[in-house]
Every structure is written in structure tokens, then in C-alpha cells.
Amino acid sequence: MRSDRLESGFDTVNSADYSTSSLSEKEDIFFDYKTEEVKIGYEKTWDVFLEKIQSLIDQGENSLSDVLDMLIRKPAEKTILSTTEEYIADMLKFPRDERNIPIYKLIVADGKYVYVPRHHIDNTLVTNVTSRITEGTDLLVELGSGWGKNLFLIYLKGLFKQLQYVACEPTRSGRRATEILGKLEKDMSVITRHFDFYDPDMSFIEGNPDVLFFTNHSIEQCIHFNHQVFDMMLEKSGQCTCVHMEPIGWQRHPQSEEIKKMITENKIPKEMPVKISNEELLENSMAWAGLFKYNTNLLNVIQQYQRAGIIDVEAIQYDVFGINPFNPGSLIIWHKK
Description:
Blueprint: E1 10-14, H1 36-58, H2 64-73, H3 80-92, E2 104-109, E3 112-117, H4 124-130, E4 139-143, H5 149-155, E5 164-169, H6 172-182, E6 189-194, E7 211-216, H7 228-236, E8 240-246, H8 256-264, E9 271-275, H9 281-291, H10 298-307, E10 311-322, E11 329-336
Parallel strand pairs: 4-5, 4-7, 5-6, 7-8
Antiparallel strand pairs: 1-9, 2-3, 2-10, 8-11, 10-11
Helix pairs in contact: 1-6, 8-9
């Protein structure tokens, strides 16, 4: 992993860059679970993955690990992430291979900008989730699971085949993709459930089991996180642990209240100035959250529950990893007291 300081890059990201014909039409409505349009956007996104999964299976691919590898290394469609990577590669003049694909990509690791080989895969989330699985864990539940990638990566580590895996996802196509992939592993017990952060239903949890929940850049889509989700998680479980990988590091910034107000009032900036230096990392992620209307209150909710003595926060590591260097995830781990 290279960690050159990259002090010289300066440019401007314009919100219009992410709603042009260079992207699929859904991406300018891709950022807020509160609206039906956003669900439609995700439905289209995972539908493309669903078609790709079915195509691979129809071609004779029957190994979950192989199909997963193909989907991760060659995404099914152009996304905001791939467009951002291309933008940064041009900005920083990364060398390209014979297919004109950048050799490197810029990420955030441990609160710093670094550049890594194009196919670099980070295991921070999977490692921290699996480290919290115990012999007593009954359910592993991802809230906002997409097409199930994270659950399958955890299963394929081979250590937790006894678990009940639960994919909670608002989109039909995401749930269907998970169901089809799950059938490739006859020993895996994975179920899907419809889930909406703004109208949570955890009726699938019965008998006060030991539950390990996790989220990965899903709460980011909720401008105001609904604390009833935490209440339900705590009420329905006997033992409850939760691992979050969410881009909330900027919420500790002294100037974050201004951005939060802009997001809440739907006063979205037209552009964000970007300087690729470690000193500007927090400013960049705060501006990105404003540009795309990301979550404004998760850090505050967690701190409120901790102060009330309802949960114990085991760890908070800000900006620990970001495959999108403008939107790095922070690792938060808490458990029920």
C-alpha cells in the first residue's frame, strides 16, 4: 500500500457531474431512503446485478465464491464509485494499462489518503464483524444488505456455517439476488426480509436470541436515522451487538452543523472543492455528505444511547476505510448493556 502525500491535486466536483448521460438515469435519485424514488433507484441497480448473477449461473457457474469474485472485480454497471475513481485517476494522472484502465485507485485507510492497486479489496468490515461472532451467536443480520455480498463473504470464511444469516433489504431485486446466490451453497442458511429504516419490522426475531447486527453504508442514505431501529434491535434480542461501517467521521467536525442544516433543508451545494491532502480529508467528506444528502445524526444518536446507559460503545475509529475517498466509513461497535 502506497501512502504518498498527494498534496498537489486540486479540482472541483460538481453535482451535475453525477446526473449526466455518462451515468445511468437512476443515480441522481440515489441518495435518500425517505423517498420512493430512491428505492426505485436501488431497485434498478440491484436488478442489473440480478441479471448478471442469473446470466453467470445460466453459463454454468455454480460456485458461490467464483460468482462473488466475478461480481466484485467486474461490477455489473457503471456507478458513482466507478465514475469517482475515473475522475480521481484523471485528476492525479495515474498511469494506465493497455486497456486504458488506471493501475491505481485512491482510497482512505486509517484516516489518510493512500493509493493502492486497482483490484485492492479491503476486509475491515468483514474482519470486525466476524471477530464479534461467538459460539452463542444465533443470528447474523445485515440491515440494508443490497445483493448480499457482505453476508456471503463472511460465510465463505468457512468458520460460521452454523449461523442463521438474515439479509434485511428494502428492494425486491436485492432480496432476490441474495436468494439465488444463497442456493449455490447448500449448507448455508440465509433468509431475506423486507426492511425499511423508516418503518422497521423485526418480527423475524423471536425468542430473545443472541443477535449480531451490522450495517455498511446503508444508514448513510437516511438523512435522519430513526432511533426506533435501535429500540427494536434492543427489544427483540437477548444479547445484541452491532457493527457499523458508516461515513459519520465528518459529523464530529466543528463546522458540521452548517452542513447538517443544509442537508435537512434540502439546500444542496452545486459543487464541492476538492484538495487531495490528508489535511483536507475531513472537509472533503463533509462536503460530499452535503452534496449527496447523507445521514446527519447517527453519531449523535449513538452518543445519546451511550449517555443514557442503554448501550456500551466498544470502539469508534473515524475514517478507517473508504473505497470512495470522499466518503470514508467510520467503524463503530456497540453492545446492549
